[in-house]
Design brief:
The chain has 470 residues and is α/β, with parallel strands linked by helices. It has helices at 25-30, 81-87, 94-99, 120-123, 134-155, 164-177, 190-201, 222-246, 257-269, 285-295, 301-312, 333-338, 346-359, 369-375, 410-420, 441-453; strands spanning 15-16, 35-42, 52-60, 68-73, 100-105, 117-119, 183-188, 206-212, 327-329, 397-404, 424-432, 462-463.
Length: 470
């Protein structure tokens, strides 16, 4: 039998990245040096006969003595890696820019890579994840299925193949197209799942692996997933309260923040609390919790204190937001392909809500509650959570995480570190926020030494916190 020759790796035709609609003058000024291209990849790596689509990629060449390629895995799901290269290179130190071709991409279903598109009017009717009855539960399942049908019709067949295992194959196609035997990889937040699964499938093709703000894809139940996420959010809220108690610059200094928060949630539940960015329109309890949760990413405690004070003194909203038209992006479908978080019925869902409220004084509605409700009633995950087999990496992975990370809690980072065992080392930033590489000189130097010189830190290494308000 004749063995067919291996297909030649596709090439990448780079060209200078061009201004795009929505670019500001500041964005355009940052474009020089960035190169953009597309790479043709299968819609379904398990059955390439289903067709292809164009994956958007971007890079900046090493400015000094080139050491290799550093691929950046964007978070989200839904973040644009191409935009990171075009206008967001402040994410990387000059040392890394000197030594590496820094490459990233828009993951399948995101932005320039066959973005998931859905009817904006339908997406605007997405139910609140704070379900109050079996009728709400059933209506959410029907809505999710209607939305999935709509998005599939407006996106095309790529919609059916958006799990991270497919994206792993896309990353390896990028590596092959670049002519590299091995790559260094830096994943952030949800991009750490991509890094974990790439290393599991292609350990021999990984030179170095940085996982920043580590996303745990271990075999957790729905309750364990929600509890871990709520714990991280509440921990960050507690840190905000501690700061406000001692900092006279806090707009709520001297006030009972827990009581104020309860008042705001009650007003939001009655439809009497305005959206801080659009005061004419109401904000729901979940939306209020999510706005607060996002301020912890920095963290930006001073801004949060100002928002909460403004809301406590606000007048009720006067109208409902208009119904949007046309199509809009919705990349969250990837999460439902990567996680199996089943809930049988409203009784079980209500039990989760009661437990979250009992165990978390303030952020009883974690942002990831929407992740669970958004996936209700959808087909089974194609890439469900599970503990990986040994990684067998040449160089142990470097995991970095803030002690007080609101989105990827420190408990998740320690869990993934246990999964890596001898193939990974966790370095702790003893501070706050989602992301730590750019937070302190110590963290930056630790990551840079690892990527440039393969200098693996000792186990138990940590970096001191930097005051986020300074």
């Amino acid at each position: 039998m004749t063995v067919p020759a291996a297909a030649a790796a596709p090439s990448v035709d780079w060209a200078a990245c061009q201004p795009e609609p929505g670019d500001t003058p500041e964005d355009i000024a940052l474009l020089p040096g960035s190169e953009c291209a597309t790479l043709t990849v299968p819609i379904n790596w398990d059955d390439p006969a289903e067709g292809t689509f164009e994956l958007a990629v971007a890079r900046r060449k090493a400015q000094g003595q080139r050491q290799g390629v550093l691929v950046f895995g964007p978070g989200g799901p839904g973040d644009s890696g191409v935009e990171r290269i075009r206008t967001g290179m402040s994410r990387f130190s000059q040392r890394l820019e000197d030594r590496f071709d820094i490459v990233s991409f828009d993951p399948r279903g995101v932005s320039r890579s066959n973005a998931v598109k859905c009817s904006a009017a339908l997406l605007a009717r997405q139910p609140s994840p704070i379900l109050k009855s079996q009728q709400d539960f059933d209506a959410t399942i029907k809505y999710n299925r209607d939305l999935a049908k709509d998005c599939r019709q407006n996106t095309g067949p790529v919609y059916d193949h958006l799990d991270t295992l497919q994206t792993v194959r896309d990353v390896d196609a990028i590596r092959a197209a670049l002519g590299e035997q091995r790559i260094s990889f830096h994943g952030s937040s949800y991009g750490t799942l991509l890094g974990q699964q790439y290393a599991a499938r292609y350990p021999q093709r990984v030179r170095a692996l940085v996982l920043e703000s580590v996303f745990d894809h271990g075999s957790a139940t729905t309750g364990q997933f929600l509890d871990a996420q709520a714990w991280a959010g509440q921990d960050s809220f507690d840190e905000f309260v501690k700061w406000c108690t001692t900092a006279t610059t806090c707009a709520l200094h001297g006030q009972d923040i827990h009581a104020l928060w309860d008042r705001l949630l009650a007003r939001a539940d009655r439809g009497e609390l305005p959206d801080p960015q659009r005061p004419s329109y109401p904000i729901t309890p979940f939306q209020l919790s999510f706005v607060t949760f996002r301020t912890f990413y920095g963290p930006d405690w001073a801004r949060l204190a100002g928002i909460l004070k403004q809301l406590d003194q606000s007048a009720p909203p006067t109208q409902q937001p208009p119904v949007p038209t046309g199509l809009t992006s919705f990349s969250f479908v990837t999460f439902c392909r990567d996680f199996s978080l089943p809930v049988r019925d409203y009784r079980e869902y209500a039990g989760h809500l009661r437990r979250l409220a009992r165990d978390n004084e303030d952020l009883r509605y974690p942002g990831q509650l929407l992740a669970v409700s958004t996936c209700l009633g959808l087909p089974k995950a194609t890439n469900p959570q599970r503990n990986p087999k040994p990684y067998d990496l040449r160089t142990p992975a470097l995991l970095i995480n803030s002690l007080h990370d609101p989105a990827t809690g420190y408990n998740g980072a320690t869990s993934v570190a246990r999964q890596f065992a001898r193939d990974g080392v966790l370095v702790t930033y003893r501070g706050w926020g989602h992301g730590s590489y750019t937070t302190s000189p110590c963290m930056e130097a630790t990551v840079d030494d690892y990527l440039v010189a393969l200098d693996v830190p000792r186990r138990g290494t940590s970096c001191a916190a930097v005051d986020p308000t300074s």
